[in-house]
Design brief:
The structure holds two protein chains of two kinds.
Chain A (H helix, E strand, L loop, with lengths): L1 H27 L1 H12 E6 L6 E2 L5 E13 L7 H11 L6 H6 L7 E7 L1 H9 L5 E10 L7 H4 L1 E4 L5 E4 L1 H5 L1 H5 L3 E6 L12 E4 L6 E4 L3 H18 L3 E7 L6 E7 L18 H4 L9 H10 L16 E3 L2 E3 L12 H6 L3 H22 L26 H8 L8 H12 L4 E2 L4 E5 L4 E3 L4 E3 L4 H17 L13 E11 L2 E15 L6 E8 L11 H15 L7
Chain B lengths: L8 H71 L2 H10 L21
The chains are: A alpha+beta, B mainly alpha.
Chain lengths: 558, 112
């Protein structure tokens, strides 16, 4: 009996030990083991959101997404590394397989061999049936028009955490709208990694980025780039820029600069080329600025088109400086129209003196200079206008013909569009609409202010038409059309003085003058064939303008 | 006096003989039904366990088709780019218009 009791006691002790152990695993270690079990059969993956498309005004694609693949290998699973490296090198078009072989070291379980592979290359590698080789899906931004509109679009790179991020242009400004938001998929999988139908399934759908439709007209953009490129070769300029804007709405129809870069391969270009000079570089506008000063004086009713200048028969002396005309030729009592037609600096000094520093400064600000235009491109900057308190009479005089005042090309073209559209300062806009998930948001034209009256604008237009018909560029104007324009040749300030041999040659204008469809500014920085705007920027302007008048089906008025 | 609670033993024996047969029949039918459901469940669960593979195949096929669509869209975009169109147009002998005449109503003669 005693032995039976002892045996019974041992069994009970053993049972107690089992119960204690079960309690330990099922109660005390419950949370930890549950997590480990879930991690084994619950698979969680992130679902990348496709970046939104960027479309031209006709719906054609300017920026899309290209599926690419990262080729990786598990060296431990590769039987014949030399053979595998040789086969891969052949497909990847490498001269030697040594580079690939060096990566396939025995001590690694995962090694990246090549990134940004196309789908066709991936299929070729899959046909090799190499064990231990796999692919990670990636996505890369693709610009089918290559370098066309590169400065407008910007590019997509990686941020400090390796996530896709837009830089410069539209990609940078609208990065938040374009990037979308990623999703998550959590599902139970069996031992083979296949999903269990009746298992747990949690999915958060990725939200694609919004698609943007631009005001950019693909045909106009292509035409502008073609003509600008030809002009760069012909006139030997360091930098050339053209911007075309619709004056009534502020819509940017085209914008081009050379040298430019291809956003598909932005890393192969110098970083200096990423900046869009049209919104981020400043220049002294020279004689193109005269039309704005004249419009201001007309608006103040200080002068009329036929007001005569009684101090324009020779150079004007101010504070020890001598203000001369560009060709040192002077007229006896030229009218204000003559002053614009012949680009008479002395006549502009006469006009500016009537305005005075206070009024001229106010109109410079009213025309949008010294402040950002708020164009929807990343990296816009604006040069400051020297404080009014620091202005002297000589500054008033030089500002009247566009020297001593720094502007950006987008500020300049927008200011001239005020004259073209009857007096309204518009916000320049590149994007026309944003296609969201459930609606389309249209970006409406925005009137910021009205610096001048319709009458002042109309009179200024008349002067600019005469400047084209009777000025240095009269032989270039298209027959039968009324084109309003003004040439500009501004000396470049270098180390405290102006270099007479280095200029910024420009031409700004719009057509048809009575109902303008477009305003355009052409700038050549340091053209070598000629320093004058009439001989470089003006011909390019009229070549583009002729094509635009044809493209927009605008018949000649005469 | 005979007890009124006395049961007819003969009838009781007969009923006792009938009851086991009925019960057995019910039990047999029950077992068959349970067995059928058991096999049905095993068959369904087995099918479900392999469905994951089919679903994964469909997902993979869908992903491949989506990728190919994207590649084709990009190819269309590249082929219709204006640089490409201009080259093709030149190759096909197209050129820009040289002499243009805009027709005004005064220049057009018509007869009814």
């Amino acid at each position: 009996m005693a032995r039976i009791r002892f045996l019974r006691f041992c069994f009970l002790l053993f049972l107690l030990a089992i119960l204690i152990r079960l309690f330990y695993w099922q109660v005390i270690r419950f949370d930890d083991l549950t997590i480990r079990a879930e991690s084994q059969h619950l698979s969680t993956s992130t679902l990348d959101a496709p970046r939104g498309l960027i479309l031209a005004s006709d719906g054609s694609i300017l920026a899309a997404n290209k599926p690419t693949f990262l080729l990786f290998a598990n060296p431990k699973l590769l039987e014949d590394k030399k053979e595998a490296a040789k086969k891969l090198a052949a497909v990847l078009e490498k001269d030697e397989s040594g580079e690939i072989l060096a990566k396939l070291r025995d001590d690694l379980s995962w090694v990246a061999l090549q990134k940004d592979l196309d789908l066709e290359v991936k299929k070729e590698i899959e046909e090799l049936n190499l064990a231990g080789v796999g692919f990670d899906s990636q996505s890369r931004r693709y610009y089918p028009e290559a370098s066309s509109a590169g400065h407008i679009l910007g590019f997509v790179g990686a941020d400090s955490l390796g996530r896709q991020m837009g830089y410069f242009g539209i990609e940078g400004f609208y990065n938040g709208e374009l990037k979308g938001s990623g999703g998550v998929l959590a599902e139970e999988k069996d031992a083979r990694g296949l999903p269990i139908l009746m298992g747990r399934f949690l999915k958060k759908e990725p939200q694609s980025g919004y698609a943007l439709t631009l005001n950019i007209d693909r045909t106009v953009q292509h035409l502008v780039e073609k003509k600008l490129k030809l002009g760069m070769e012909k006139y030997g300029a360091k930098v050339g820029s053209v911007v075309v804007m619709e004056p009534k709405t502020g819509a940017i129809l085209a914008m081009a600069t050379f040298p430019n870069y291809d956003p598909n391969n932005f890393t192969e270009f110098p970083k200096e080329s990423y900046k869009n000079p049209i919104v981020a570089s400043s220049f002294e506008p020279g004689s193109t600025f005269k039309v704005l000063v004249m419009a201001a004086a007309l608006n103040e009713d200080l002068v009329k088109a036929d007001t005569k200048c009684d101090s324009c028969s020779g150079p004007v002396q101010i504070s020890g400086y001598s203000i001369r005309t560009w060709n040192n030729k002077y007229q006896e009592e030229p009218t204000m129209t003559d002053v614009i037609v012949h680009s008479d600096n002395t006549g502009m000094v006469f006009t500016a003196r009537k305005l005075g520093i206070d009024k001229l400064y106010k109109y410079i600000e009213d025309f949008g200079f010294g402040a950002l235009t708020q164009i929807d491109l990343q990296d816009e900057s604006s040069p400051d206008i020297r404080p009014k308190e620091e202005w002297r009479e000589i500054d008033l005089a030089t500002a009247s013909f566009g020297q001593g005042v720094a502007v950006t090309p987008i500020q300049m073209v927008r200011a001239v569009s005020v004259i073209a559209n009857g007096g309204y300062l518009m916000e320049p806009q590149v994007v026309r609409e944003i296609k969201m998930r459930d609606r389309v948001k249209r970006i409406e034209p925005k009137v910021l202010s009205r610096p001048i009256s319709e009458m002042a604008a109309k009179v200024t237009v008349g002067m600019m038409v005469e400047a084209v018909e009777k000025g240095e560029a009269k032989y270039l104007a298209p027959k039968g059309y009324k084109v309003a324009g003004k040439t500009g040749t501004a000396q470049i300030p270098i180390a405290g003085h102006y270099d007479p041999n280095k200029t910024i040659a420009s031409f700004v204008g719009f057509a048809p003058a009575d109902d303008p469809k477009f305003v355009m500014l052409v700038i050549y920085n340091q053209p070598s064939s000629s320093i004058f705007g009439a001989e470089t920027a003006a011909p390019t302007f009229f070549e583009i303008a002729k094509e635009l008048l044809l493209y927009y089906n605008i018949p000649p008025s005469n | 006096m005979a007890c009124p609670c006395k049961v007819d033993m003969k009838r009781l024996k007969q009923s006792e003989e009938k009851t086991p047969k009925k019960t057995l029949k019910v039990i047999r039918i029950g077992v068959v039904i349970v067995a059928v459901f058991l096999f049905l469940e095993i068959w369904l669960v087995n099918n479900l366990s392999t469905f994951g593979g089919k679903i994964q195949q469909i997902k993979n096929a869908q992903a491949v088709v989506k990728l190919e669509n994207q590649v084709l869209e990009n190819r269309i975009a590249k082929n219709t780019s204006l640089n490409n169109v201009e080259e093709e147009a030149a190759r096909l002998g197209f050129g820009s218009a040289k002499n243009l005449v805009y027709l005004k109503t005064s220049l057009v003669a018509s007869a009814r």
